[in-house]
Amino acid sequence: MRVLPRHLRDGRRPRQAGFTLVELLMGIIIAGIFAGGLYAFFFAGTDAARTSESVAGAQADGRDALRRFTRDIRQAVSPDGGLTPPVERLSATEIVMYVDPRRDPGATEPRPDRVRYRVDGTEFVREAVGPVGASAPFSYGPFGRREVLAERVEDAGTPTFTARTVFDGTLPLPVVAPGTRYLGFVSVRLILGHRSGNSSESTEVGTDATLRNAVRI
Asked: What is the Cα–Cα distance from 174 to 164, expressed in whole angstroms?
């Protein structure tokens, strides 16, 4: 005699293993919320790291550019024994000077390069050209040896270069030789753009430099 299973004798269906549709949907929703939180946390950290790296890079480039400028302007010297000032001209975005970094302090006849710092679009550049001739007065060709010292320079309506006289008075710009012989201090300010997450921000670096070879009157 065949014996029926108990669930058939009792008229009950066997219990099904697995999840219902509602349970599956709830699980998907909860997993999605959890994954979204992890995604936001991960990319927030990535954006913060990228922002810090961008800011540090902009500041490092700016400081290196300012160190180069400060070194040059402190070594600016007249190319012809004092007839021409160490700085040829100065404007809000450009300065031209004569620099002889190889000069011996005891030398009486320097052979300086003609050096120009300027903002060219979004770049802060240094250009130089060597002297032509055995002795002063020298002649100079067009600028060459172009170096990009900083990128993503922004124009915020403030001048890159400002100046004060040897008497510590503000000097209106632009100024050209022979008026530049009264230059005593030059300030340079660079506003450099950098990325902050998905947006663009800026950081400012600046310095003041004294012309060691300025004419004292």
From this structure: 12
Q: What is the pLDDT of residues 48-85, one digit of tens each?
A: 556 667 667 778 888 999 999 999 998 899 888 888 89
State the residue for tokens 């506003």. 191
Counting runs of H as helices and runs of E as strands, what totals does the chain give?
2, 11
- How many Å separate Cα 162 from the centre of its chain? 19
Q: Is 189 in a helix, a strand, or coil?
A: strand
Each residue's pLDDT tens digit, 114-132: 999 999 999 999 999 999 9
Q: Find the helix or strand (DSSP H, E) in which 49 lies.
A: helix 21-74
Pairing status of strand 161-165 against strand 199-210: unpaired
Residues in the chain: 217
Terminal-to-terminal C-alpha distance of the chain: 130
